[in-house]
Amino acid sequence: MWRAFNVLGKSLEMLGIQTRKESWNLRKKQPTLNSDDSNKLKIKSQSTGAMSIPVMLNWEKQELHEQCQSYDETDFWKTYDVKEFLIKNNTHETLVVYPESMDSCGVFESVQQQYQEMYMFKLYLYRDTSPREGIATAFTVQKGQKTYLMTCTEDGTLRLEERTAPQFISGYESKYIFYKRDFNEGDTEAYSFESSLFAGYFLASEQENGWKKLALRSRQHEVDENFRIQLVKI
Asked: Quick one: 103 and 214 in the same domain?
């Protein structure tokens, strides 16, 4: 009988040692997650060292809400890219800006090729937390040492505001945002730009007092060449 108890005791002791070994091996293989400042997670183990992998969480949206948490809003825009273009109308004239003008922020003129770089616009692309038709964009232009941002006033007039494009914009509407869409199906060279502040109103080339001015106008017909805006790289 005592022999049976001794055998049983040794068996239980061996089982306990084996269980502790397996638990230790599992702890050695178990990764631990440590965040760093580069929006990556580091996986560490005693056997493999450290390896960096991209975060699988939607950190951009989290960052967007953290930056704008002071606003009691649910909709935001956030920049993700910027491109440089000349802006031309349906007759291939180039948009030239006049920040000091009170009746129009720019007119379309014939510009010799060697001077076109002076009239380059930066087109900022924004991600929208409430996606709508088209790509959310904002326009800036350099005039001398100053940067101007195209804006739409409450009375529907276009102005140039001395400032850079904001990285974050809160709210469902913005005086800075214009939605870029294909001008016509199959036309890959031209676009239309609808104001987010005034639904149904688009950037247009408008004839006034012998000038072709950039204006914001209601689009009554699907195909109206005055709303045809070309973005030209040089």
From this structure: yes
What is the Cα–Cα distance from 210 to 34, expressed in whole angstroms?
65
Assess contact for 58 and 144: CB atoms under 8 A: no
Range of the domain at 144: 59-232
Q: How far is CA 172 from CA 64, 65, 129, 151, 165, in A?
A: 15, 14, 9, 16, 17
Q: 97, 143 in Cβ contact below 8 A?
A: yes
Helix %, strand %, coil % of the chain (to 5): 20, 45, 35
- Whether residues 172 and 212 share a domain: the answer is yes
The DSSP 8-state label assigned to residue 94 in this structure reads E
Residue 168 has what pLDDT? 94
Residues contacting 93, CB < 8 A, separation 6+? 108, 109, 110, 111, 205, 212
Coil, strand, or helix at residue 48? coil
Nearest-angstrom CA–CA distance, 192 and 79:
20
Closest CA to 160 of 102, 202, 230, 226: 102
pTM over 0.90: no
CB distance 123 to 132 below 8 Å: no
Number of domains in the chain: 2
Per-residue pLDDT tens digits for 46-82? 334 443 333 434 545 455 444 544 444 467 899 999 9
- The confidence score (pLDDT) of residue 54 equals 38
